[in-house]
């Protein structure tokens, strides 16, 4: 019987349990996928703690992204066959050895993208894609600020944004993470643990500030992030690793320079099959060409998912972490 990591009650990493699960045969429009690698993301901790409600309640199998091999397909599936390599970034339930999936959420993997790369980049890489190409279409001459530059999404954003011609500013918490970010496209990296990042951004930009700020940190960087944005620039809040941004009066956006603000999610940007394939193909293209490298810096056995969460929340990780069934 296959194993899965499940959550029966919300809480810390210790609530992740490794147990047997039953999976049936794929039905119409479905495929049975045997996982070879599973991505670990901060998003997973939000579902574990209950910050984000589980779509189908508890018990919950955690995880949103993985790569694997198709073992069987259900009736009516004509574009996938057993043996095909696939990856996905939804729906939730990836922390398992195998699962039955709706084929509409799967994409085929090209030969030049490995399973570990795919497992570690589908959610993070397509997040980087929509942030840089659709939420704010970064172009040559733009200046961007990205918080948590040494994280999984951050390292991809740094490389991709530099390729798009932007001046890329990041923040990080220590010298090792600063060096890592600088090696992945960032022109400037600010140690936010010891420096005022608003003053640093003002100095770097000569007072012009940034066209866009991408913020997955939340409470600890707000509202200071707004002071890093030029008039009519964009604030993009897409995560809250330090806690949620407290409610605020929209008038602050006018006071800071007629700013725009958005709270996007990947799932809204890949809701249609066409958008999913376009985002995945754009990601595969930059990875295959060597424009963006995906570095798996932490590997854990699937049964050790609790340790992976503890390390992630303790800010002990850099880049990408994966679970291996």
TrEMBL record:
Identify the keywords attached in UniProt to this record, alphabetized: NADP, Oxidoreductase
Q: What are the recorded GO MF terms, alphabetically?
A: mRNA 3'-UTR AU-rich region binding; NADPH binding; quinone reductase (NADPH) activity; zinc ion binding
PROSITE patterns given in the database record: QOR_ZETA_CRYSTAL
- InterPro entries attached to this UniProt entry: ADH-like_C, ADH-like_N, ER, GroES-like_sf, NAD(P)-bd_dom_sf, QOR-like, Quin_OxRdtase/zeta-crystal_CS
User: Residues in domain Enoyl reductase (ER)?
Assistant: 11-323
Q: Where are the transmembrane segments?
A: none
Report the domain of life of the source organism. Bacteria
Gene Ontology terms, cellular component aspect?
cytosol
Cell inner membrane in keyword set: no
- Indicate what this protein is called per its UniProt record: Quinone oxidoreductase
- Organism expressing this protein natively: Aquibium carbonis
Lineage start: Bacteria, Pseudomonadati, Pseudomonadota, Alphaproteobacteria, Hyphomicrobiales
């Amino acid at each position: 019987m296959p194993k899965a990591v499940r959550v029966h009650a919300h809480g810390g990493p210790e609530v992740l349990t490794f147990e047997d699960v039953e999976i049936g045969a794929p039905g119409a429009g479905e495929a049975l996928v045997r996982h070879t690698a599973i991505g670990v993301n901060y998003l997973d901790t939000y579902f574990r703690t209950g910050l984000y409600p589980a779509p189908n309640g508890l018990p919950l199998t955690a995880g949103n992204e993985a790569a694997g091999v198709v073992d069987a397909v259900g009736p009516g599936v004509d574009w996938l066959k057993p043996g095909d390599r696939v990856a996905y970034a939804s729906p939730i339930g990836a922390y398992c050895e195998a699962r039955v999936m709706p084929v509409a959420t799967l994409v085929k993997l090209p030969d030049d993208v490995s399973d570990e790369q795919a497992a570690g980049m589908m959610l993070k890489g397509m997040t980087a894609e929509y942030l840089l190409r659709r939420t704010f279409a970064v172009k040559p001459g733009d200046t961007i600020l990205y918080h948590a530059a040494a994280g999984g999404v951050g390292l991809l954003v740094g490389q991709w944004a530099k390729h798009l011609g932007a001046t890329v500013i990041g923040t990080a918490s220590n010298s090792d993470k600063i060096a890592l970010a600088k090696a992945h496209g960032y022109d400037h990296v600010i140690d936010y643990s010891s420096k005022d990042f608003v003053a640093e951004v003002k100095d770097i930009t000569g007072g012009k500030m940034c066209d866009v700020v991408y913020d997955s940190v939340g409470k600890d960087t707000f509202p200071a992030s707004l002071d890093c944005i030029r008039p009519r620039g964009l604030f993009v809040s897409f995560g809250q690793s330090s806690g949620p941004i407290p409610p605020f009066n929209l008038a602050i956006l006018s006071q800071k320079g007629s700013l725009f603000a958005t709270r996007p999610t990947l799932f809204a940007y890949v809701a249609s099959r066409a958008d999913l394939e376009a985002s995945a193909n754009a990601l595969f293209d930059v990875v295959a060409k060597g424009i963006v490298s995906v570095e798996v810096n932490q590997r854990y056995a699937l049964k050790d998912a609790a340790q992976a969460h503890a390390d992630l929340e303790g800010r002990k990780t850099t880049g990408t972490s994966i679970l291996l069934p």
